[in-house]
Amino acid sequence: MINAISVTINNFVNSAIEQRLIHLLDRHYVTNRLMSLVHLDELTTDTSNETHLLTLMDEMTQYAVEKKVIEDIGYAKEQFEAAIMDLITPRPSQLNETFWTLYQDDPEKATDYFYHLSQTNDYIKTRNIANNIQFSAPYKAYGDLDITINLSKPEKDPKEIALAKTAKQSNYPSCLLCMENEGYKGRNNHPARQQHRLVRLDLDGRNYGMQYSPYVYYNEHSIFLSEQHTPMKIDRKAIDNLLAIVERLPHYFAGSNADLPIVGGSILAHDHYQGGRYTFPMERASVYDTVELAQHTNVNAQLVKWPMTVIRLTADNRHDVAEAGEAILNFWRDYSDESVAVLAYTDDTPHNTVTPVARRRGAAFELDIVLRNNRTTHDHPDGLFHPHRDVQHIKKENIGLIEVMGLAILPPRLVGELDAVKQYLLDAAPITSVAPMHQEWAETLKATHPDADKSNIQAIIEQAVTDKFGRVLEDAGVFKQDEQGIAALKRFIDAFNQQHQ
User: Fold this and answer.
1) Pick from 208, 322, 323: which is nearest to 275 by CA?
2) Separation of alpha carbons 398 and 382, rounded Å
3) Of 221, 298, 308, 354, which residue is the least packed, with the fewest Cβ within 10 Å?
4) Residues with Cβ within 8 Å of residue 454, at least 6 apart in sequence
């Protein structure tokens, strides 16, 4: 067994040197640190042809479990794996020096370096992400929508869940987005972050960190987080930050979840944004009208043909874009139009906010302002501008930034549930085999697709799921893409202009 684990350690170190993750001079140091992790006092010089770092990491982890160095439970193995990969990850100061040196030559080279490192050291869970199911299909006149059934996050076993419930509560780090996570060992109710690194960003004098999401939903899925643990707020500062990000990283977009419950993101306690290198369906959407904005004549304002309400602002000067975006946001905060059920307040409770998305369009700065409202009603207790009950069997969760832009993140339960619907459509199973929440939908699909067979069943299901997601976005739209909704949006623009003359 000593020989086998020796081979694994030697292969790991050799591969890390060959990939230039560590220097040749680091060989003995890293070897000894790995020996310490597995409680090994001696080592042979044997090697083999295995060079894949994640496979070698798995072998060391399995050895540690078998030798009872660590417990055979998810969080303990996660911490052990992170400790291994920390040894081939530069210290934060080294990483930042390399990033910004590469940046001086080309911002894309800098992010390529950081993204590749985050994949190689297993901070980005590439093997888990490969399990996700992804497809695209058209929806009405809006173009293709993107669908992901998220299978990347491993399920915790009952023992681990029980331990997490009884674990001692800690305020360190304050949340999953705090900078204190960088290098943190983790515990049974907090993920291991030993190989986690942050690139420091100066956003016009405000200190932020850039990291990648461990379970990326799209290419180079980034998170930009404040140095301070302060609540999210959509205001001029947020808009300026988004535009500053795309000024520094012009090949990325940057956007923010809204800052109110129901229409906001899952972590509202820490100021942060998301970004990455991906063209979302909303960005590809066409424009159906151009409008004038009083006092913002340097900004081109367009209305986007999209299920949700999008005002697109473009100008060469990012401060002009920011001023127009701030003006629309502030006006929208207090705007009501009862004819389309838009109320800014219920008593003192605010309902209006926005989901802002920034990008570069050539040399110009572009900002999409997506109007949001989180009002609830008796008929729609989950939210009037939220997925309605007849589509919640596919998507019930909040419609955040990623969904707003046309990428559905759907729950893993759908894999088995959709397979049951397929079998029913193929006459291979009774309707009772379909989950009750899907039965009405399945019966409708069967009536409209009598030609369903093995050659087209996958396409039928993918289109049907896409149609439901399209409806989700329509439900979340404040001013609908119909005659009444477009007229209401024009009234909003007219009212804005009258106040700003």
Assistant:
1) 208
2) 9
3) 298
4) 426
Buried b (16+ CB within 10 A) or exposed e, 173-206: beebbbbebbbbebbbbbebbbbbbbbbbebeee
Q: Which two structure tokens, joined as six digits, stand for 440?
A: 């009405």
H helices of 87-193, where? 92-105, 107-120, 126-129, 158-166
Q: Give pLDDT tens digits for 80-101.
A: 999 999 999 999 999 999 999 9
Average pLDDT of each block of 10 consecutive residues along the chain (501 residues)? Answer: 88 97 97 98 93 97 97 95 98 98 98 98 96 97 97 73 70 94 95 97 96 96 97 96 98 96 85 97 97 96 98 98 98 98 96 98 97 97 96 94 97 97 97 97 97 97 98 98 98 96 83
- Contact (Cβ atoms closer than 8 angstroms) between residue 207 and residue 230: no
Give dist(CA 379, CA 389) in Å, integer: 10
Stated pTM of the model: 0.94
Distance CA 115, CA 102 (A): 13
DSSP letters spanning 195-222: T---EEEEETTEEEEEEE-TT-SSTT-E
Report yes or no: 357 and 372 within 8 Å, Cβ to Cβ: no
Residues 6 or more apart in contact with residue 403 via CB below 8 angstroms: 395, 409, 469, 472, 473, 476
Alpha carbon distance 86, 70 (integer Å): 17
* Angle in degrees, 0-180, between the axes of helices 436-448 and 414-425, rounded to the nearest 10: 40
Look-up of token digits 């050539």? 362
The angle subtended at Cα 495 by Cα 493 and Cα 497, nearest 5°, is 70
DSSP labels, 64-87 = HHHTTSS-SSHHHHHHHHHHHHHT
Q: Look up residue 389 and give its amino acid.
A: R
pLDDT recorded at residue 153: 77
Residue-wise pLDDT for 368-426, tens only, equals 999 999 999 999 999 999 999 999 999 999 999 999 999 999 999 999 999 999 999 99
**3 state DSSP class of 60:** helix
For Cα atoms 498, 499, 501, give the angle at the middle one, nearest 5 degrees: 65
Who's near 280: CB < 8 A, 6+ residues apart? 146, 218, 253, 405, 406, 407
CA neighbor of 391 nearest in space, from 495, 483, 311, 464:
464
Residue 342: phi and psi, rounded to 5, are -95, 115
